[in-house]
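Possible regression after last week's pipeline update?

I re-ran a chain I had predicted before the update to compare outputs. Posting the input and the new output here so someone can diff against the archived version. Not blocking, just want to make sure nothing changed silently.
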Amino acid sequence: MQRLWIYAIGFVIALVITPQTTSPQQPQPAPTPPTKFIKHTIRTIPGRYIVVLRDDVVRDSDPIEVRRAGVTAIAERHTKTYGGKFDYVYETALKGYAIALPDQAAAIAISNLPEVRWVEEDVMGSVDVGVPNQTTPQPVCVGKPVAVSLLEYGPKRSGRRIPFLSGGISRRDRLVIRDGEQFNQLWKEIAGPGPDKPPPPQVDFSREMLIVAAMGQQPSSGYEIIIESACEVDKQLEVVVRSANYAKCGLQLGVVTAPVDIVRVPKTNLPVVFRETEVASGCK
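New output (post-update):
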């Protein structure tokens, strides 16, 4: 937890002293890990892997259907060559797919391909979209793990997962968005009034839905909320939400924030329940 506190300090300081010179139209790519095959030490799912492709295998400016088709074609080609079966494609926050492979050698071989950034062992509850952290414990899923990916809006983010500090939702809330009409209403609240509203991200509600966790309006910076994982258990979808308050450590700016985290999950008609966890700040 001390590591998270230190990161949060650096993030807030960067907001204050770093000039905003980078254009949102020129996002910085996420860093690549030092090795292209990542092994985890806890709660791995045997035979399952996440393949992360280079950002340029498809263009972010293309429609979501075009991006999905491009990533799917690569996944099909890899499967034909190395065996196994892929079952979920990522074409938004990152480009890649989830796959079951016959052995680790096949995963290592895929990781060495030029269009692949890295391959990692799948773990229960993994939701990070940056470089995998092999030492961060993940929530335990006692049922079927569900793929979770970040809904990107605004300037593209990379690295460790952080919430949107001003998500436009001033109340504490937990939402499940299953159709476009619900999303349009949510987007009006997120984007706020005025003629220069950013367009909403593309979401295919025929195959995915959104989970929203809003922390509510906070008196300062130093607050965080993250949707950690999703898991099918006892005929329902259990979503783990982690909240943290670093302001009590003295880490804060004199600004009001409203942290919000929004993720995509495969569409399901199962009822959704939220399991809340609060993280101690670790300060004395």
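Follow-up from reviewer: compared with the archived run. The helical segments are 2-17, 64-82, 104-111, 180-191. Marking as no regression found.
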